[in-house]
UniProtKB/TrEMBL annotation:
Stated name of the protein: Biotin-protein ligase N-terminal domain-containing protein
InterPro entries: Biotin-prot_ligase_N (IPR019197), Class_I_gatase-like (IPR029062), UCP016642 (IPR015834)
Organism taxonomic ancestry: Eukaryota, Metazoa, Spiralia, Lophotrochozoa, Mollusca
Positions of the Biotin-protein ligase N-terminal domain: 5-260
Organism superkingdom: Eukaryota
Amino acid sequence: MVGRVVVYNGEGACEKSFNLLKKSLENCLCPEAHPVSCITPEDIKKGGLSHDCAAVVFGGGYDKGFIHALGSEGIQEIRSFVLGGGKYFGFCAGGYFGCDYIEFDKGGPLEVCGKRDLCFYPGKCIGPVVPHFEYDTHRGADAVPIRVHDIPQLTSGFTCKLYVNGGGKFMPYHDSSGCKIDIIASYCNLPNQPAAIIKSEIGAKGGRAILTGCHPEFCAFELDSSDSYLQRILDDLKQNETSRKLVFRVLLKLASLKLRSSHL
């Protein structure tokens, strides 16, 4: 597969998350096969995903902003793109956005609950999985252990710690057994080890969605070492940096994207 990889940049996207995500994609993807650029909600609504695009990527932020900026027209453009064989990546807020239903801080002051229209995952994304989340800070951030399942490029039971801040867990509906869903990784430290990363096959033309509650795209050495909330987890994240990069590259491969020759 060749084609552009576009990263959403508009209402709902966190600037720091966008920058880290775009840089990680540029560092990993073959630039001749997959030039990386940003895409605005206006571009999406005008059909910008239909022009030699391989994947659309949504990173951290807040999905109500995505919904407000895109409207039903933009959301349908994304869904049609994936049904036509395109790939969707959703990291953290982008992961919530890709589910059928979300429950964020249910019963708390930041509560956001409701149906979502992309419906790439037949279930709920429920979070945050780490307490004390605050928008625009790292107060609720942690280095959370995940276990990767049955991926050819990784040893069975491969574990590492990844940055999590506000992300959710993926909980399937009871009647979703007929859907083509793979659990890529689970949270090791949560009861019943729920899904942290899932892959969903969409439609009959090779469409695929990869949704995460964690941030495998965040390079530990790019995070702000002067931030008091990050200081308590940075050593853990840096020790897991090689593993993090490996997990991120595997996710790109699962979407049939071509990596730089020095990578997987």
